[in-house]
Amino acid sequence: MSIKIRSTRLTLALLLTLIISGVCSAEPPLPDGRRFRRIVADKYPTGVYIGGTTGWRKRSNGAGVTMDREFSYVTPENDFKQRRIHPRPNIWNWKEADAWVEHCRKQQQILRIHGPIVMLSLG
Q1: Is residue 24 in a domain?
Q2: In this predicted model, what pLDDT tens digit does every residue of 56-102 receive, in sequence order?
Q3: 3-state SS class at 49
Q4: Sheet strands (E) in the chain
C-alpha cells in the first residue's frame, strides 16, 4: 500500500512539474489591434517614451519580445555595468553592449544605459 501511494504521489508531482514548466515557458499570445507603441506615438507626437528593462539573454523571449513589439525605450539590466564591460584591468568586453546598440537601432528604440563606466588609474 505504501509503495502505491508513493508511486501515485511521484506521478502527480512529475505531472504537475511538466504542466507548470509548459505554462511558464509559453510565449504570450500576440495581441490583436494596434501596437501600444503606435498608440502612444499618435497620442503624444512630441515624444513620450514608454519602455522597460531586460537583460541581453532574456530579450529574445517573453518580456523581451513584448518590449520589442510594444515599447519605444529600453534599459538593459546589467549589460553596461563595469563588471561586464571592463571586468579586469586591460580586459574589455563590448560584445553585449554593441549588440544592444544594434538591436535597439533595428527596433527603433531609445537605449538608456544605467551602468556608468568608471576608469580607475592603477598606476
Answers
A1: no
A2: 888 887 788 888 999 998 999 888 888 888 889 899 999 999 999 99
A3: coil
A4: 51-54, 73-76, 110-111
